[in-house]
Amino acid sequence: MTKRKPSRRRKPIKRKGGSKQQSQSPSAMLAQAQKMQADMAAAQSELENEMVTITAGGGAISITISGHQRIKAIELDPDIVDPEDVEMLQDMLIAGMNAAIEQSQTLSAERMENITGGMGGGGLQDMLGSLGMRER
Prior knowledge:
By secondary structure, this protein is of the alpha+beta class. It has helices at residues 20-23, 26-49, 86-116, 124-129; strands at residues 51-56, 61-66, 71-76. The protein has a domain at 25-116: Ybab, Chain: A (2-Layer Sandwich), CATH 3.30.1310. The longest helix is centred in the last third of the chain and has 31 residues, at 86-116. It is elongated and about 100 Å long.
């Protein structure tokens, strides 16, 4: 008669943490999505009234842009308006406008990230996907 080794039963693996989304019920996730949507709409509305002002050309040009990427004001130092060098003025305006747009986009992205909690690129779509509601 041979001795039999006692069988080893594996203990169930307990996972620590896990994502918040996995522990929420579908109704709680839907409520969270609705709140997030309302918060995002409010932030978008507020961004319309938030302004970013940048300068270019060593302060010779000042451009003010809204959080909705709408140019609200352009101020030029009269000393830079040289009919003989329109190209320099054009270059400074382009540089200033591009910098203003970048600042406005950064402002908008920061506001949205505050709402979504840094959910990444998918954001609301990722959350809805776990409910089986992902767009196809």
